[in-house]
Recover the amino acids of this structure.
DNA sequence: GGACGCACCGTCCCGCTCGGACGGTCCGAG
DNA sequence: CTCGGACCGTCCGAGCGGGACGGTGCGTCC
């Protein structure tokens, strides 16, 4: 196996690698569309990177590139055994970091003290609408593929997306209704009132 | 009111503005710590930006800067009326974008087909532990401040964080147990089995 | 059937982001 | 006084982000 120049593989790298592994040889534009209606829903990747990243990965020996000569300039990338190995290694290795939720609305909520109170109400209304829309979208997808995740393993991720969307929706509805206590109560109903496990990680100062 | 050179205000900008609005005059290091045990939990901001961003904002007239002369070089930033106005305007204005969940684990799950099946099991186990830890941390914070969000409006955001953490935890537990159907069932129990509202946004191709 | 219009596709650019390395500062212990 | 370690600030280089721009192919209309 030829030695691979060490490159930093970012999440973007793995998305490219993964998409090509799942779909077979692809052009950047293929990737753009594939990402756009799958992982793109919860993690946005700007399209320009889907052009530059495969180049990097080709240099690193994880992809090979075939340029079309006639007509529209177009490059088709395929995954190499090294690429597949790198992808599998990443999947198998323990995850390094906790998730991030990048939600401007959440920031606005946090800083709501400086605005005026009914900003929060408006914000909540907006978020409710937004998340309802998302849920309808996701539910539609589930419906079109059948509810059984065995049919399409990629749909498992959709289920996670739905769970999070519903949770967020519940939160904003409770906030709009001024009933956060009810939210907590319903949560306990599902999970039991006790904190799960509780390693004694001490929360730090706030 | 002096005219303000137009600058792009990013979420980072508003975090800086917001933190200074809430806390009063602060040094970048103050901001770093304040962010670190609040918004930093769900949206990571690299510390270097908390030094450079206030500079930008000062140029834009949204902050003022006072340098300490003696001892350690240190700059204390305060918010100007223009800064506060910009912040309030942002809070009031409708949110532009949907949240993003940047979770490497979610990506790994999506690409699980290419790895081997028990990678998923290991992943689930890891995530369960990770989220339980987080929940314990957050619950600890809630406890220290009392459960009544009226006591501290900043804690409302914590409640959202908890809701999302619990949802995610439920998902990974269900996945580990091989019972995603049960997950869906419990969700219906909370929200009713019907898709909320459903604007007829058609899901696109998959 | 040439000219036009528009969707499709690829590239470039520039400012910001990111994380880590590095260096200075303060304070307590030895 | 000196040393060490926590505290604090700056710098740098690679990567990200998103929008502008330009080319390509195809259908349409005169």
């Amino acid at each position: 196996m030829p030695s691979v120049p060490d490159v930093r593989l970012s999440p973007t790298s793995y998305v490219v690698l993964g998409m090509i592994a799942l779909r077979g040889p692809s052009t950047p534009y293929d990737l753009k569309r594939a990402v756009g209606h799958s992982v793109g829903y919860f993690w946005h990747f700007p399209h320009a990177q889907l052009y530059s990243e495969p180049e990097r990965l080709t240099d690193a020996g994880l992809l090979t590139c075939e340029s079309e000569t006639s007509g529209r300039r177009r490059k088709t990338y395929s995954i190499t055994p090294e690429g597949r190995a790198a992808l599998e290694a990443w999947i198998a290795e323990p995850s390094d970091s906790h998730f991030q939720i990048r939600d401007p609305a959440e920031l606005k909520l946090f800083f709501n003290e400086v605005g005026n109170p009914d900003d929060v109400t408006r914000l909540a209304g907006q978020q409710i609408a937004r998340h309802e829309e998302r849920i309808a979208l996701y539910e539609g997808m589930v419906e079109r593929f059948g509810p059984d995740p065995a049919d399409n393993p990629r749909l498992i991720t959709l289920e996670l997306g739905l769970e999070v969307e519903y949770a967020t929706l519940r939160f904003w509805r409770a906030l709009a209704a001024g009933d956060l206590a009810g939210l907590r109560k319903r949560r306990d109903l599902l999970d039991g009132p006790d904190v799960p496990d509780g390693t004694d990680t001490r929360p730090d100062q706030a």
Remarks:
- Chain A touches chain B through 99 residues (CB under 8 Å).
- Confidence is low (pLDDT under 50) at residues 197-206 of chain A.
- Chain A has eight helices and three strands.
- The radius of gyration of chain A is 22 Å.
